[in-house]
Amino acid sequence: MADDETILWRRLDRPGHEAARLSRESEDWKLAGTAVFTHEAEPCRLDYSILCDSDWRTSEAVVEGWVGREAVRIEIAAAGTATRAPAAGSSLSSRSTRPAS
């Protein structure tokens, strides 16, 4: 698409890279990408997708991947619900809800 923009960059302070794409979806904006880095000496890969309206207000976001051996999946919705759901084989089981702002 003509409205798509992409970027690739690397961290300067330690090993790590990130690639992202910003694109239009109807009247909304979507930022999607992948970050690969280390956290507390553990290798990490996190994919993310963030949806914003035409005024750049975030309506939803999803982050999933892994940190070391632990699978990660976090979903946030502007309606006021945030969840952290376990990925297959993961021990993550917390779920939180925040009030709509």
Task: Describe this protein's structure.
- By secondary structure, the chain is mainly beta.
- Helices cover 0% and strands 63% of the residues.
- It has one domain (5-97).
- It has strands at 5-10, 16-25, 28-39, 42-52, 58-67, 70-77, 81-84, 95-97.
- An eight-stranded antiparallel sheet has the order 1-2-3-4-5-6-7-8, with no helix packed on it.
Shape: flat
Q: Indicate the mean pLDDT.
A: 82
The percent range for helix content is under 10%
Number of helices: 0
Largest sheet: 8 strands, antiparallel
Integer count of domains: 1
What structural class should be given to the helix and strand makeup?
mainly beta
H and E order: EEEEEEEE
What is the terminal separation in angstroms? 33 Å
Could you name the ranges where pLDDT drops below 50 across 5 or more consecutive residues? Answer: 90-101
Work out the radius of gyration: 15 Å
Strand content: over 45%
Widest sheet, order of strands: 1-2-3-4-5-6-7-8
How many beta-strand segments?
Answer: 8
Record keyword descriptors for this entry:
101 residues; mainly beta; eight-stranded antiparallel beta sheet; 0% helix
What topology does this entry show?
Elements: E1 5-10, E2 16-25, E3 28-39, E4 42-52, E5 58-67, E6 70-77, E7 81-84, E8 95-97
Antiparallel strand pairs: 1-2, 2-3, 3-4, 4-5, 5-6, 6-7, 7-8
The gist of it:
Helix content is 0%, strand content 63%.
